Amino acid sequence: MSRARLRDLGVTTGTLPTGAWNAITDVPGVRVGYSTLVHDQPAIVRTGVTAIWPRGPELWTDAVFAGIHSFNGNGEMTGWAWIAEQGMLASPICITNTHCVGVVRDAVCAYAVRARVPMPWLLPVVAETYDGWLSDAGTFPITTAHAFAALDGAASGPIAEGNVGGGTGMICHEFKGGTGTASRVAQVAGDAYTVGALVQANYGARELLRVDGVPVGREIGLDVVPSHRDAPRDSGSIIVVLATDAPLLPIQCQRLARRATTGLAWVGGVGFNGSGDIFLAFATGNHVPHGEAITTLRMLSADNMNPLFQAAAEATEEAILNALTAAETMVGRQSRTAHALPLDLLTATMRRYRPAP
Question: Is the pLDDT score of 301 beyond 90?
Answer without folding.
Answer: yes
